[in-house]
Structures are given as structure tokens and as C-alpha cells.
User: Fold this.
Amino acid sequence: MLTREKLNDAGWAVIRDTPHLVIIGISSTGGSPMDELLEHSAGMKSIVDGMNSTHPLIREIAVGVNIMQAQKSIQSWYRSLAEIDRKPASLQEKALDSMKSAVGALRARGGPDDLLQYSDFVRSLAMRVARAAKEGDVLGVGGELVSAGERKFLDRLEARHQRTGVVGRAA
Assistant:
């Protein structure tokens, strides 16, 4: 199994940061500030739950210092964007591009099981975030569990997996 020590710094950074970017990608599809808070909380819980993974790389992503480094890296990237580029489409594209790069790094250094476990981890996290808050509800009544915008992002994430040849179990 692939471990952090077998990756170069750039490969590790993209693998570490991608789950956080996917949280942002899902949350940027719309909803209220409360929805975003619930979604971010669900995503962070998914990352922290990675401590229970059988895969050492996913466990490493869940270490507190690595969570903080990922958040710092993403904040730095976000602050470097011009205001016009701080749009949901840009945030979603960054998450999708990061996933593609993470898969590339895993393919270069790891095996099929590394790809499968990481892919399942990120896709499961994405679904958990999408289902964290109903969108379009009024005081909890009505709305949809997974909004059209979230479904579109999830479909694009899935399409990236299919194009890279990664077949996972999460849904």
C-alpha cells in the first residue's frame, strides 16, 4: 500500500488537499449559509473519519496537522484569485482538476487498490456533503436532499473517475 513517504511533496499535497476542495466544490453549488455550514461540517467529519481507514494514506489525510496544512494551502490559493474568479464554477473546476491530479499521482506511485480506496474515500465524502443539508426547504419542510447543482457536480466527479479508468464502490 502507498504511504506518504513514497510520494513527492507535490503528489502528497494534491492528494491531501483534494478532499477539502471537493467539500468546497459541493458547497459552492448553492444553498443558504446554514446549508454551507452543515455541508462543511459533514465533509470535515468524513475527513476525520479517515482515521479509521485501513489505508495508510487515508489515515494520514485525517491527521490534524495535515488537515490544517490542507486548509492553509487552499486558503492561500483562494486568496490569490482575482475577485472575478471566486465563482462557484471556478471552485468546482479546481476540485475536479485536483481530483484528476490526485489520481495521476496515485497512478504514478501506487497500485490499483490505492486508486480504488482513495477514489471511494473522496466520492463517499462528496455524497455525504451533498446529503448534509436539504436545499430549498422552509424550516425543514420540503426541499431536496441533493440539489440539482450538487447532482451535476457529483456527476462530473463521477465522469472524471470513469475517464481515468477508476471504478469504485462508493455511491
Q: What stands out?
A: Helices lie at 9-27, 33-49, 56-61, 64-80, 88-109, 112-130, 148-164. The chain has a mean pLDDT of 90. Residues 17 and 72 are 10 Å apart (CA to CA). The first helix runs from residue 9 to 27.
